[in-house]
Amino acid sequence: MPPIIQVENVTKSYHRDSFEIPVLKNTSLDIQDGDFIALMGPSGSGKTTLLNLIAGIDKPNKGRIVIGGTDIASLSESALAKWRSNNVGFVFQFYNLLPVLNAFENVELPLLLTSLSRAERKKRVEIALQAVGLGDRIHHYPKQLSGGQEQRVAIARAFVTDPVIIVADEPTGDLDKQSADEILLLLERLNQEFKKTIVMVTHDPRAAEKAHTVRHLEKGELI
Amino acid sequence: MRVLKLVFKNSLRHKLRTSLTVLGIAIAVTAFGLLRTVVTAWNAGVESSAANRLIVRQAVSFIFPLPFSYRDRIAKLPGVEAVSYQNWFGGVYIDKNQFFARMAIDPETFEQVYPEYIVPPDQFAQFKKERNSCMIGRDIAERYHLKIGDIMPIEGDIYPGHWEFVVRAIYQPRDKTVDASQMLFQWDYLNERMEQEAPGRANQVGWYIVKIADPSKAAAISEEIDALFKNSDAETKTETERAFQQGFIAASGSIISAMNFISFVIIGIIMLVLGNTMIMSARERTREYAVFKTLGFSAGHLIGLIAGESFVISFVGGAVGLAFTLPIVQMFQAFIPKGWFPVFNVEPITIILAGVSALVVGLAASLFPIQRALSTKIVDGLRFIG
């Protein structure tokens, strides 16, 4: 069976003023369907850039990124946006919930782009929030939740659309140990029970222990 | 629906800032409405002028009279349907602060020349019958609680002496631009008294009003009238009523132009106030917009969110401003001396202009934040710390 994520000879650099800063150098990586992979490495090694490229929120200068048979590097911005909404769930370090929306509305947000009815959306959101243990916090706003609870809402938002892959950028980076353990447990469940392919960037070796595969990056190269 | 809800929630995210912006827009819209109303009031005479009326006045200056004998010569010209005449009377009613137009008119031709003054036939018949009768506008009747049969004592200044007029008719303006605050009395009454007290001032009129059959011949007839009295002691200057009214306000033309300009500067101020708010809001939400884009929301969604918020704020500000415009205009009218602006209404076009301006400005103010939100890369937006 072909890998669900194929990163082929990808090069990425950024321009800062007149300087070109190389971030990824001819990087290749295959990730199998249902895998839970942790990308580790020092700051500036290119792990978040690689994650962003896999998630389709950035484009490589060179190379191909094929996910589920689609070369996402060749998609237009609007096609890529649509592809993201159908295929990727996002978990950020700082949760990135909308402060004016409650837990229910935050989780419902990506479903607004689907053709689901209001009743179907409600059902899905409630299931997702119950799955992350926040069935009793549906109407709470982010400021009324702890950091761990906010991240759980963010995880519910990430999988409520039933995406092919979930990308998580330092999901435990802003949490205390207990909350971090809960989040890692949730990601583990998503991978094992819901068979989601998870790509996680982390500095935390304990977090990396939960992954099936750990890859290290250094100076833009996988080692 | 959720996106619309988000627009409203975003609008109320910083309640104090939104309230101050709404207040700023409301004040600007009210100021715009007030200024436009003043400008409109200034031009009311011009607006009410008819295309088929010519005004014949002394060529040297409006303040010099014309001989009464001109009337018949003008009336004989081809294309002339009627000739009426008036004198500015002035005088003091109650005290010098009670300003409104007081004029001597010719009752025989008045209705024919000025159909926009609606007078009950029985009242007008009575007005024509009594020499010292007068006809007053609806506003004057209301302002001074005058009714038919009441006496209006006036101390003359241009025409000295004590004058008493009996109210015999109250006219209604047919259109909003017609001055309903005039006091009109019989020219014959004035002339007879001049014959007795100042014979040198008798048989003189202030100006003639010439009703013509074909407005397109106004220029030709004007030339003919002026040619009739060329090289006489009292040469004439004939012009359309509109040109005559414009001549009246020409002296204050630069003030009106300045007010006109300021009223549109105010629209610019609204844009800056709202633009500032929207730029601040959009900047603070750079990361949120990046999250929206990450989740797959399109450029159209972001445009809707930002423009929608700007639109909501400008709409509320515009609505509050318009709601305040009418009472503020009425308050302003109460403070200015009576009669300064005989016609002082908030015109529908002023309301439309103010409302549309607020909304257009609302959309315009969102352009820069939209451009910024759309052009920011997702990865840069997610890194943004506002």
Please characterize this protein's 3D structure.
Chain A is an alpha/beta fold and 223 residues long. Chain A has one domain (5-222): Rossmann fold. Chain A has helices at residues 47-55, 77-87, 103-108, 118-131, 147-159, 177-192, 205-210; strands spanning 5-16, 19-31, 36-40, 62-67, 70-71, 88-91, 165-169, 197-201, 213-218, 221-222. In chain A, the strands form 2 sheets. Chain A has a 6-stranded mixed β-sheet with strand order 6-7-8-3-9-10, with helices on both faces. In chain A, strands 2-1-4-5 form a 4-stranded antiparallel β-sheet, with helices on one face. In chain A, strand 7, helix 6 and strand 8 (197-201) form a beta-alpha-beta unit. Chain A is globular, with a radius of gyration of 17 Å. The relative contact order of chain A is 0.20. By secondary structure, chain B is of the alpha+beta class. Chain B folds into 2 domains: 2-44 and 252-383, no CATH class; 60-234, no CATH class. The longest helix of chain B has 37 residues, at 299-335. In chain B, strands 1, 3, 4, 5, 6, 7, 8, 9, 11 and 12 form a 10-stranded mixed β-sheet that branches. The radius of gyration of chain B is 29 Å and the shape is elongated. Chain B is built from 16 helices and 12 strands. The mean pLDDT of chain B is 88. In chain B, helix 2 (15-42) crosses helix 13 (299-335). In chain B, strand 7 (151-156) and strand 8 form a beta hairpin. Chains A and B meet through helix 2 of A and helix 1, helix 12 and helix 16 of B.
